[in-house]
Amino acid sequence: MSNTGGAVRFGDGAIMYFEYQGSSDTAEYHLYPTVDELHANWRHHVWTPNCKYAGNGACAEEPIEMLALYGGGTHWKGSACRKCRQLIEGIVPADCDEQDGLPDWNPFGKD
Predict the structure, then answer these.
(1) Residue 81: beta bridge partners?
(2) Are the beta carbons of 45 and 18 closer than 8 angstroms?
(3) Beta strands of the chain (E only): which ranges?
(4) Rounded Cα gap, residues 30 and 50, in angstroms
(5) Domain segments of the chain: what residues?
(6) pLDDT, tens digit, for every residue of 52-84?
(7) CA distances from 56 to 53, 59, 71 (A)
(8) I need a surface site. Which of 64, 79, 84, 101 has the fewest CB within 10 A?
(9) Taken in order 48, 5, 105, 76, is the CA torsion positive or negative?
């Protein structure tokens, strides 16, 4: 697989990270608070959502901006539960009106 890093930005500017599967063009559900934690858990795939708040009305779903470094970069919108560190919407960028290139807030730096 062609795995790469991805990041989300919450409305308050907070950044979290996820692993992106380039071969299937999907984001893994789990969010990590730092790049170091992302790398420490690299290839420990989380393929199903496990937000313990989903479905009971307590999920703290927030809109987010997402990016993936794969293929020169792409970005799109989704949602996440920060409390559970889980993506909710935006797993498949092609379903989310993705845009080519990386946004200005790219936390990975400029290449």
Answers:
(1) 61, 86
(2) no
(3) 3-10, 15-21, 26-27, 61-68, 74-81, 86-89, 99-100
(4) 9
(5) 3-100
(6) 655 666 678 899 999 999 888 999 999 999 888
(7) 6, 7, 38
(8) 101
(9) negative
Residue identified by tokens 């991805």 is: 6
Terminal alpha carbon distance of the chain: 22
Q: Supply 70's token pair.
A: 């794969």
In this structure, the number of other CB atoms found within 10 A of the CB of residue 15 comes to 17
CA distances from 11 to 32, 40, 62, 63, 81 (A): 17, 26, 8, 7, 12
Place of tokens 């730092």: 34
